[in-house]
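sanity check this record:
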Amino acid sequence: MAKFDWHPILEMDLEDGTHTCYAATDGNWFIWLTQISDDTWDVELGCKGAEGFTTQMNCKTLTSAKRWAARYL
């Protein structure tokens, strides 16, 4: 199981300071956890040097998104 060091993306914060996006990297891949409009969290994956990303999983909570990323990425 991988352990990622998650960093909030401050530009994506709500007006009250609530974080809605976190990012981590393992050197070759970028991983984002992004809260979407229905308050669930997408786990998104992008390759270093490539444009764009793909959604790998949608999770009900931030904790479950972090757990999924640690287990499967």
Summary: Helices lie at 62-72. The longest strand covers residues 29-35. The chain has a mean pLDDT of 94.
